[in-house]
Amino acid sequence: MRLVLLLGVCLLATPAFAQNCPPAGHTAASLQALKARQFALPDPAEKQALATGLIGCLSASDPELRDGIAFEALSQWMRAGDFDANALRAMRDSLYASLDSKDPQGFGKPFAALVLSEVARADRIKSWMTPQERVAMVERAAAYVEAVRDYRGYSEGQGWRHGVAHGADWLMQLSLNPALERAQYDRILAAIASQAVPGNGHAYVFGEPERLARPLLFTAQRGLLSAEDWQAWFAALSAKVGKLDRTDYAGWLGRRHDLTAFLSGLYVQADQSEDAAIKALKPAILATLKQAP
C-alpha cells in the first residue's frame, strides 16, 4: 500500500510536459533519427500533427528534446513555409496557452516565446494574420517580456531558459513587420524599457542587452519617432537606475551595468549602420551615456 501511495504522489507531482513529450507515437530515439534526416517529413498531415505534438516538448527538461529537436524542427518547418494560415493559427493559440500555463521548471514560457517569434516571422514574410490579430500579438509579446522575473540564462546540464532574450526575439520579428503602426511600436518600446534596466538590479551576463537592442533598432528604422521622442525615451530609461543607495548598492550597480551595456551596444550598432534613421539615434544615446548615474 505504501508503495502504491508513493507512486501516486510521484505521478501527481510529475509535470505535464513529462507526460506528452515525446509526442504519442514517437520516442526520443525516433525524434533523434528525424533530426538526423534534417526533419524531412514528406506527408504534410504527419508534419502538422507532429508540430502540434512538439509544442509539448518546449517545456521538457532535456535540452536536446526542447531546443535541439522541438524548437529546431518548428523553426525549420515554419521558415520553409510548410504550414498554412489555419495551422499557424492553431500553433499560435497553443503557444499562447503555454504562456498562460504553470511552468515549474522555467523552460516552457521562454521557449513558447521563442517559437512565437517564428510564428510572427511567418506573418511578416507572408501576411496571414488580421490587423486585429497582429495588434493582439504585439500586446501578448510585450506583456510576456514585462512579466519575466526568471533571469536564468544558461545552466550547465539544463541548457537555456533565457526568457528576456527569447521575448526580445519575439519583439524583434514584430518590429520588422511593416504592417505595424506607431501605437504598436510604442508598446514594443515600453516592453524593452521594462527589461533593459530590471528594477531588481539583476546584472545581465548572457547577451540580453544586445537582444533587446535589436527591436529598438528596427523600430528606429521605421522613422516614426522624432528626435525629441527618442531623447525622452532614453532619459526615462536612465532614470530607472535611480540614485545611489548604500542600502542597495549591489542593485544600483546592476542597474547601472545594464544601462551602460544596453546603451553602449546600441551606440556601436547605430554607428556602424548605413541606415540614416538608425544613425540618427547616436546623439540621444551618447547624451544619455554621458549623463548616466
Shape: globular
Q: Helix-strand pattern, N to C?
A: HHHHHHHHEEHHHHHHH
Beta-strand portion reads under 5%
Write down the Rg.
21 Å
Low-confidence stretches: 1-18
Oligomer: single chain
| Main sheet properties | 2 strands, antiparallel
The N- to C-terminal Cα distance equals: 64 Å
Name the helicity range: 55-70%
Mean pLDDT metric? 93
**Structural class of the helices, strands and pairings?**
mainly alpha
Compute the number of helices: 15
Describe the structure.
- This protein is an all-alpha fold.
- The chain has helices spanning 2-13, 16-20, 28-36, 44-54, 63-79, 85-100, 108-125, 131-147, 163-175, 182-196, 208-221, 227-239, 249-272, 276-279, 282-291; strands at residues 154-155, 159-160.
- It has a two-stranded antiparallel ribbon.
- A hairpin with a 3-residue loop joins strand 1 and strand 2.
- Helix 7 (108-125) packs parallel to helix 9.
- The model is unreliable at 1-18 (pLDDT under 50).
What are the main properties of this structure?
two-stranded antiparallel ribbon, 2 strands, single chain, 293 residues, disordered N terminus, 1% strand, mainly alpha
